[in-house]
Amino acid sequence: MPRRFAATDLHGCLRTFRYLVEQELRLLPTDTLYLLGDYVNKGPDSGGLLAYLMQLQDNGYRVRCLRGNHDQELLDAAHGRHEKMWVTEAERTMTLASFGVAQAEAIPARYLAWLDALPYELELPDFVLVHAGYNFALPPSQMRNDHYTMLNTKHFVFDPTRLAGKRLLHGHVPTPLGEVQAKVAARAGAIGLDTGGVYRHNPELRHLAALNLDTWELHLAENREEPYPIAKR
């Protein structure tokens, strides 16, 4: 039977993500993997991770990807808008080096075109998927076109009536693994799946998590990258 999985906030952790896909999930071409954004920045191999996602799709795997705030910021930087791009110079250097360039404007066009085509949300029969969340105080039509909030919000009051009673899956806010496991066990109405996989120093984070949307099993891959510079969180 085809399986459905959702994961998020990969942040250039290619080795960890490949382990999750190939060893933990053993993803099949008949499965669908939904990814909720933030493929780049913070981690060691943003370019390699995007190339791997493209390769999976080119090879017939059903990998459906949403846009995250870091993906948007990389696009903005490639068009000369660097205001909020990188927290540290080490992160900037690491991200650009993964694409083989010294300036964001030189990132190869195929990566930028792929990022620019990413949707802001996906709707399934039983779930709505978005990177960060929604402003549930807005009318539904405005709520789902408020792209800034959909990419960036860190706080919202979940209202399932605004999503036709469907559950919400999102990422964006790194959350201790135990808290995510508790939400999944309770089958909560809104679940954040960002278990902070890129934060390799923090034992409460440093995992990529993939949720089976039918069995509710939470699959985990602990950070497997070679050491890289990142602030502790």
What's the arrangement of secondary structure elements?
Elements: E1 4-7, H1 14-25, E2 32-35, H2 46-58, E3 62-65, H3 69-78, H4 89-98, H5 109-116, E4 121-123, E5 127-130, H6 140-143, H7 147-152, E6 167-170, H8 177-185, E7 190-192, E8 207-212, E9 218-222
List keywords for this structure.
233 residues, alpha/beta, Purple Acid Phosphatase, chain A, domain 2, 4-stranded mixed sheet, globular
Rough outline: globular
Beta-strand content estimate = 15-25%
| Assigned CATH superfamily | Metallo-dependent phosphatases
Helix content: 25-40%
Main sheet summary: 5 strands, mixed
Could you write a compact summary of the structure shown?
The chain is built from eight helices and nine strands. The protein is α/β, with parallel strands linked by helices and 233 residues long.
Explain what the structure shows.
There is one protein chain. With 233 residues, this protein is of the alpha/beta class. The chain has a single domain, classed as Purple Acid Phosphatase, chain A, domain 2 (4-Layer Sandwich). It contains eight helices and nine strands. The protein has helices at 14-25, 46-58, 69-78, 89-98, 109-116, 140-143, 147-152, 177-185, and strands at 4-7, 32-35, 62-65, 121-123, 127-130, 167-170, 190-192, 207-212, 218-222. The chain is globular. The model has no long low-confidence stretch (mean pLDDT 96).
